C-alpha cells in the first residue's frame, strides 16, 4: 500500500511537471565559440527550472540578421517567447504593443534595487519592465598578440601616434598589423572607437547622442574620419565580409597582431584556452583609457497566450538577472555583470579593469552608449550612419569632408 501510494504520488508529480515544462523559444545571435559557450550556460540554468529551451539562433555578429528574422516572425503573428533586443530598440518594440510585462518578476527579485538607474530606464517601456539585462560589454578595446609586438620591440599602443608607428613597424617586419572584418557593424564599431579616441567624450556625445549637425560636419569629425581610414592599409586583402570571430582567430593564432573589438572578443580568446596578460592583452583603444563605450545585452519577452509559456518567460527573466547566472555567463562571454556591486573575484584582469572603469567613468560622465551596438539612437538612424561609414571605408575616392557631410545628412534619418 505504502509503495503504491508513493508510486502514484510520483506519477502525479511527473504529470504536473510535464504540464509545466514550458518550451521557451529564445532568439539570439550567439553562435561563435565564446558566445555559444555563454548561451549554453543560460540553456542549462533554464532547463534546471524544468523549462525546455528552444534554440532560435541566427548567426551574424551584432544581430542584424537576427533582427530581420525577428521582424518576419512578429509580423506573421508568431513571435518567439524571448528575443535579444537592446537599447532604444526596446522602446521601438514597445510602441508596437507586442512586449509582455515582466513587472511581477522584477518586483519579486528586486530589480529596482540591484540594477543601475540607466539600465532600469532602458529596460522599461512606459514605466513597466519589458526586458531583462544580462551584462555590460565594453566596446573600446584593442586586443593584442604580445608575441608579435615583441618582435618589433613594441608595447601595446596607448596613443594614435604609437598605434600607427607600431602598425608600420609590424608591416615592415612582414607581420599583419590589424585583423579586420569588413562588415557594416564592424566598420562602425572601429569608427566609433576612433571617434572617442580622437574627438573625446564631449565630441562623441554631441555627434552620436545629440546628432548635432555642426559636430557631425566639424573639422574634428574630418580628422576622425581620416584617422579611421589610415587604419585600412594595415588590414589585409581578405578583410571584406570577414566575421569578427575569424578576425579574432587571426590574433589568437599569431596571423595578425591587433584587433579593435568589444570584449565579446575575450570570450573567443578564453574559449581557445588563452590566458589574459600572457597570451593576449586587453588595452583601452588609443586615447580612450578614460572613457567607456558600453553595450548592454538584454532579452525582451513577447506577449503569448499560453500560460505555461508565460511561466517559462518569467523563469527566463528571473534567471537572466540572478547573481549566479550573471557570474557564470559573463565569465564566458567576456562582459561583466550588470548588477550593482557584483562580486568580481572570479574575473580576470580585463574583467576587473572593465568593472573599475565602468564605475569611474560613470562618475566622471565619460560613460557613453555604443552607437554601433544599438545603444545610442533609433535603429533607422543607426542604419543610415552605418551605410555612410562603410561606403567611406570601401570607397577610396570619397574624401573625409564628403563623408562628414553625408554623416550629417544620415543623422536626420528617423
Ligand atoms: C554585440 C552583442 C554582443 C556580441 C556581439 C557580436 O552587439 O551585444 O553580445 O554578441 O554583438 O555578435
What sort of overall outline do the alpha carbons produce when their principal axes are compared? globular
Record field, number of beta strands: 13
Number of folding domains? 2
CATH class of the largest domain: Alpha Beta
Q: How big a fraction of the residues is strand? A: 5-15%
**Ions, cofactors, ligands: which are bound?**
beta-D-galactopyranose
At the fold tier of CATH, the topology name of the largest domain is D-Maltodextrin-Binding Protein, domain 2
Quote the distance from N terminus to C terminus.
72 Å
CATH superfamily of the largest domain: Periplasmic binding protein-like II
Helical element count?
20
Report the sheet with the most strands, covering strand number, pairing sense and barrel closure.
5 strands, mixed
Helical content, roughly?
40-55%
Please identify the structural class as seen in this structure.
alpha/beta
Task: Please provide a written account of the structure.
InterPro entries: Bact_solute-bd_prot1, SBP. With 414 residues, the protein is α/β, with parallel strands linked by helices. The chain has 2 domains: 2-136 and 295-358, D-Maltodextrin-Binding Protein, domain 2 (3-Layer(aba) Sandwich), CATH 3.40.190.10; 138-294 and 366-410, 3-Layer(aba) Sandwich (D-Maltodextrin-Binding Protein, domain 2), CATH 3.40.190.10. The protein has helices at 2-20, 33-47, 64-75, 89-95, 103-108, 111-114, 117-123, 146-151, 160-172, 184-199, 201-208, 213-216, 219-230, 244-252, 264-271, 307-321, 323-333, 349-364, 379-394, 400-410; strands spanning 23-28, 52-57, 82-84, 124-125, 128-129, 131-133, 137-138, 141-144, 258-260, 281-284, 292-295, 298-301, 367-369. The strands form 4 sheets. A 5-stranded mixed β-sheet has the order 2-1-3-12-6, sandwiched between helices. A 3-stranded mixed β-sheet has the order 7-11-13. A 3-stranded antiparallel β-sheet has the order 9-8-10. A hairpin with a 2-residue loop joins strand 4 (124-125) and strand 5 (128-129). Helix 2 packs antiparallel against helix 17 and helix 13 (219-230) crosses helix 20. The longest helix is centred in the first third of the chain and has 19 residues, at 2-20. The protein is globular. The protein starts with a helix and ends with a helix. Beta-D-galactopyranose binds at residues 29-30, 35, 61-63, 137, 244, 264, 295, 297, 373. Beta-D-galactopyranose (GAL) binds at residues 29-30, 35, 61-63, 137, 244, 264, 295, 297, 373.
Amino acid at each position: 500500500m505504502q509503495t503504491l501510494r508513493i508510486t502514484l504520488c510520483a506519477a502525479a508529480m511527473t504529470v504536473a511537471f510535464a504540464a509545466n515544462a514550458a518550451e521557451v523559444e529564445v532568439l539570439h545571435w550567439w553562435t561563435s565559440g565564446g558566445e555559444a559557450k555563454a548561451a549554453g550556460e543560460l540553456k542549462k540554468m533554464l532547463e534546471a527550472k524544468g523549462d525546455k529551451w528552444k534554440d532560435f539562433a541566427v548567426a551574424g555578429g551584432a544581430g542584424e540578421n537576427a533582427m530581420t528574422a525577428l521582424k518576419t516572425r512578429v509580423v506573421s503573428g508568431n513571435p518567439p517567447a524571448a528575443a535579444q533586443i537592446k537599447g532604444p530598440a526596446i522602446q521601438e518594440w514597445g510602441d508596437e504593443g507586442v512586449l509582455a510585462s515582466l513587472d511581477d518578476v522584477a518586483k519579486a527579485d528586486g530589480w529596482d534595487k540591484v540594477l543601475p538607474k540607466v539600465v532600469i530606464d532602458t529596460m522599461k517601456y512606459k514605466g513597466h519592465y519589458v526586458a531583462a539585462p544580462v551584462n555590460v560589454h565594453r566596446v573600446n578595446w584593442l586586443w593584442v598578440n604580445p608575441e608579435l609586438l615583441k618582435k618589433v620591440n613594441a608595447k601595446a599602443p596607448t596613443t594614435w601616434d604609437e598605434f600607427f608607428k607600431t602598425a608600420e613597424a609590424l608591416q615592415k617586419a612582414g607581420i599583419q598589423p590589424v585583423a579586420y572584418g569588413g562588415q557594416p557593424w564592424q566598420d562602425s564599431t572601429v569608427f566609433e572607437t576612433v571617434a572617442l579616441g580622437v574627438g573625446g567624450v564631449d565630441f562623441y556625445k554631441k555627434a552620436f547622442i545629440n546628432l548635432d549637425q555642426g559636430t557631425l560636419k566639424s573639422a574634428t569629425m574630418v580628422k576622425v574620419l581620416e584617422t579611421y581610414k589610415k587604419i585600412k592599409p594595415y588590414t589585409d586583402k581578405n578583410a571584406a565580409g570577414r566575421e569578427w570571430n575569424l578576425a579574432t582567430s587571426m590574433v589568437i593564432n599569431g596571423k595578425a597582431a591587433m584587433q579593435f573589438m568589444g570584449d565579446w572578443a575575450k570570450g573567443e580568446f578564453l574559449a581557445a584556452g588563452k590566458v589574459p596578460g600572457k597570451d593576449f592583452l586587453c588595452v583601452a583603444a588609443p586615447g580612450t583609457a578614460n572613457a567607456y563605450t558600453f553595450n548592454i545585452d538584454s532579452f525582451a519577452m513577447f506577449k503569448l497566450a499560453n500560460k505555461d509559456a508565460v511561466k517559462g518567460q518569467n523563469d527566463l527573466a528571473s534567471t537572466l538577472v540572478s547573481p549566479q547566472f550573471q557570474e557564470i555567463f559573463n565569465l564566458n562571454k567576456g562582459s561583466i555583470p550588470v548588477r550593482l556591486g557584483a562580486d568580481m573575484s572570479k574575473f580576470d584582469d580585463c574583467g576587473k579593469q572593465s568593472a573599475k572603469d565602468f564605475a569611474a567613468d560613470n562618475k566622471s560622465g565619460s560613460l557613453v552608449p555604443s552607437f554601433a551596438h544599438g545603444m545610442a539612437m533609433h535603429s533607422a538612424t543607426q542604419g543610415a550612419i552605418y551605410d555612410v561609414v562603410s561606403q567611406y571605408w570601401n570607397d577610396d575616392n570619397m574624401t573625409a569632408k564628403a563623408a562628414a557631410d553625408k554623416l550629417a545628412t544620415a543623422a536626420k534619418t528617423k
